[in-house]
């Protein structure tokens, strides 16, 4: 059984972006120390085009070999002309409006989202599934999430896009690793309480 991990950046007050979802203010925290952490421990979460821009070249996947995004999150790459933003993994995009995939590496999940995620989790393999977001798809998949990796940056948004676009319900997680960084970022790992 493979894990579904929601690996997400947020403000201190738990928003993953401004009210429109824009998360660019958080990029300011990707400094040398933090980038070394991402590169060393979560290299696959760096988009393929971002790696090239940083001159990082090929990096081996360490935690994930599959990524799931909602269509609104995938649109950010499409708008830049990038059809396969995570070409080093199998890419799935949830969408009921994208009928045809813009890229051979990207598979559209049109319906049966939860069933498809359960199929992927049931596959054999050492590496897990990276749930990239955004809010809506994370809310719909909350019951399937096995692990949270929450990258909290030292900023308050006041309001914004919530981590989970879901109805109120209490779901318990157990705190695992906590990493702190010189720039004030904190990365906490939680596993679902069974
Ligand atoms: N801070 C971070 O680390 C981080 C990470 C990722 C994203 N984000 C931000 O999140 C924002 C986008 O989040 P969002 O909540 O607006 O949208 P989203 O979750 O990325 O995508 C929503 C879309 O996914 C599709 N979808 C949702 N549920 C589905 C289902 N059950 N079956 C099939 N398709 C389904 C629909 O696409 P269709 O409309 O095509 O049907 C829906 O409009 C972006 O602005 C991005 O910046 C932040």
From TrEMBL:
One GO MF term attached to the UniProt entry: 5-amino-6-(5-phosphoribosylamino)uracil reductase activity
Question: Which ranges carry the Bacterial bifunctional deaminase-reductase C-terminal domain?
Answer: 2-186
Q: Please provide the Gene Ontology terms (biological process) for this protein.
A: riboflavin biosynthetic process
Q: What is this protein called?
A: Dihydrofolate reductase family protein
Q: Which organism is it from?
A: Streptomyces muensis
């Amino acid at each position: 059984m493979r894990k579904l991990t929601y690996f997400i950046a947020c403000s201190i007050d738990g928003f993953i972006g401004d009210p429109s979802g824009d998360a660019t203010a958080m990029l300011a925290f990707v400094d040398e120390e933090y980038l070394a952490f991402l590169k060393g421990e979560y290299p696959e979460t760096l988009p393929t085009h971002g790696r090239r821009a940083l001159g990082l070249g090929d990096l081996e996947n360490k935690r994930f070999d599959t990524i799931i995004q909602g269509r609104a999150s995938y649109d950010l790459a499409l708008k830049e002309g990038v059809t396969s933003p995570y070409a080093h993994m199998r890419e799935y995009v949830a969408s009921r409006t994208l009928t045809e995939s813009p890229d051979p590496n990207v598979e559209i999940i049109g319906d049966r989202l939860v069933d498809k995620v359960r199929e992927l989790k049931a596959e054999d393999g050492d590496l897990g599934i990276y749930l990239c977001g955004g809010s809506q798809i994370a809310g719909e998949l909350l019951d399937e999430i096995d692990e949270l990796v929450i990258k909290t940056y030292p900023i308050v948004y006041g309001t914004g896009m919530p981590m989970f676009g879901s109805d109120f319900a209490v779901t318990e997680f157990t705190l695992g690793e906590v990493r702190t960084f010189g720039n004030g970022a904190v990365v906490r790992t939680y596993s679902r309480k069974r």
